[in-house]
Structure prediction request, 105 residues.
Amino acid sequence: MNRRQRDVLRDAAPLHECRDCHLPIRFVRLDTGSALPVNPLTNPKGNVAARISGGRLVGFVISRDHRPGPLDSLRFMPHHATCEAKARSTSSSTTPPAAADEPLF
Ligand SMILES: [Zn+2]
Prediction:
C-alpha cells in the first residue's frame, strides 16, 4: 500500500476504535448496508474484498459465489478474526486488562 492509497483510504474509511480491544479498525460498507469492522491495514490473506467507491470503502466477504473482480483490489482481515478481547473472553491470564471498569467482587 503506497502513501496515496493510504490517504485515499483514510478519507474513505477513517479509523475507529474497537470497543473490546481498543485497537484501530475501519469499517467496510457491505452490500447489505451494514458495516463490517476490519483491521486498518490491507492484508492479502484477508477474506474481505473492497474498493473505494463514491468516496467510501465498500466491499463484501469473499465466498464461492461472490469473488472479487478486478476493481475489488483491496483485501482486509475482518477484525473479529484477530480481536484479542474476543479471543481471551474466557481467560485473561496473558494480558491484564488496561482498564477494569467492572468491580472484581
Ligand atoms: Zn477488537
Q: What stands out?
A: Residues 3-84 form one domain. Confidence is low (pLDDT under 50) at residues 91-95. The pocket of zinc ion is lined by residues 18, 20-21, 23, 79, 83, 85 (CB under 6 Å).
